Amino acid sequence: MSIKVRYFASLKESIGRSEDELIFTGPLTVYDVWQQTNPDKDRPNQVLVAVNMDYVDWDNLVKDEDEVAFFPPVTGG
């Protein structure tokens, strides 16, 4: 199974890439996705997560062909 992982804004800059493809065989949460794609980085504070363009919690399960997006909250002025 495979999912696409995307990073946006300052998070993309701090990680150094805009996306990953993750191949997996069993159930994964969004938090598991973060850990597998960024094993040397702690889970960032205040990061929003979406699966298939819907906001979700970090314990949300992902499935084959989902798209997981991580991005910092955006403020306007």
What does the model show?
The protein has 77 residues and is of the alpha+beta class. The chain has one domain (2-71): Beta-grasp domain (Ubiquitin-like (UB roll), Roll), CATH 3.10.20.30. Helix content is 19%, strand content 34%. The chain is built from 2 helices and 7 strands, in the order βαββαββββ. The chain has helices at residues 9-15, 30-37; strands at 2-7, 19-23, 28-29, 48-51, 54-55, 61-62, 67-71. It has a 5-stranded mixed beta sheet with strand order 2-1-7-4-5. The radius of gyration is 12 Å and the shape is globular.
Short description, anyone?
The chain is an alpha+beta fold. The protein contains two helices and seven strands; from the N terminus they run E-H-E-E-H-E-E-E-E. The protein has a single domain, classed as Roll (Ubiquitin-like (UB roll)), CATH 3.10.20.30.
Number of strands: 7
Question: What class, by secondary structure content?
Answer: alpha+beta
Radius of gyration: 12 Å
- Report how far apart the termini are: 41 Å
- CATH superfamily, called what? Beta-grasp domain
Question: Which descriptor suits the 3D outline?
Answer: globular
Report the major sheet. Answer: 5 strands, mixed
List the topology elements.
Elements (H helix, E strand, L loop, with lengths): L1 E6 L1 H7 L3 E5 L4 E2 H8 L10 E4 L2 E2 L5 E2 L4 E5 L6
Parallel strand pairs: 1-7
Antiparallel strand pairs: 1-2, 3-6, 4-5, 4-7
